[in-house]
């Protein structure tokens, strides 16, 4: 199982959500779901996803 940690690029790589198992993009929203099914939606764009390294970086607007 590949899990990742999502970081906010615009806030010095602060952690948005850990153990991310699913990423959805809906317009200007990036919706992250963790392994337990909890979701977090942020406004921004996906900057990069390194699935082998377990890193997702998002340019958050807020």
Descriptive report:
- The protein has one domain.
- 0% of the residues lie in helices and 68% in strands.
- The N and C termini lie far apart (30 Å).
- It has a 5-stranded mixed barrel.
- It has no helices and 5 strands.
- The chain is mainly beta and 62 residues long.
List the helices and strands and how they pair.
Elements: E1 4-8, E2 14-26, E3 29-34, E4 39-50, E5 55-60
Parallel strand pairs: 1-5
Antiparallel strand pairs: 1-2, 2-3, 3-4, 4-5
Please give a quick description of this structure.
This is CooT family nickel-binding protein. This protein is mainly beta.
Descriptive key words:
mainly beta; 62 residues
Low-confidence stretches: none
**Rg over CA atoms:** 10 Å
Helix content: under 10%
Number of strands: 5
- Domain module count: 1
- In terms of DSSP E residues, the strand content is over 45%
Overall residue-averaged pLDDT value: 96
In order across it, which strands form the biggest sheet?
1-2-3-4-5
- Listing every helix as H and every strand as E from the N terminus to the C terminus, the arrangement reads EEEEE
Distance between the termini: 30 Å
The main pleated sheet reads as:
5 strands, mixed, barrel
The SS-based structural class is mainly beta
Helix segment count? 0
Question: Overall 3D geometry?
Answer: globular
Protein name: CooT family nickel-binding protein
Pfam family, one: CooT
InterPro entries: CooT
């Amino acid at each position: 199982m590949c899990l990742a940690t999502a970081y906010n690029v615009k806030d010095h790589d602060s952690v948005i959500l850990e153990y991310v198992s699913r990423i959805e993009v809906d317009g200007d929203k990036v919706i992250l779901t963790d392994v337990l099914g909890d979701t977090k939606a942020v406004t921004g764009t996906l900057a990069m996803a390194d699935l082998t390294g377990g890193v997702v970086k998002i340019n958050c607007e807020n």
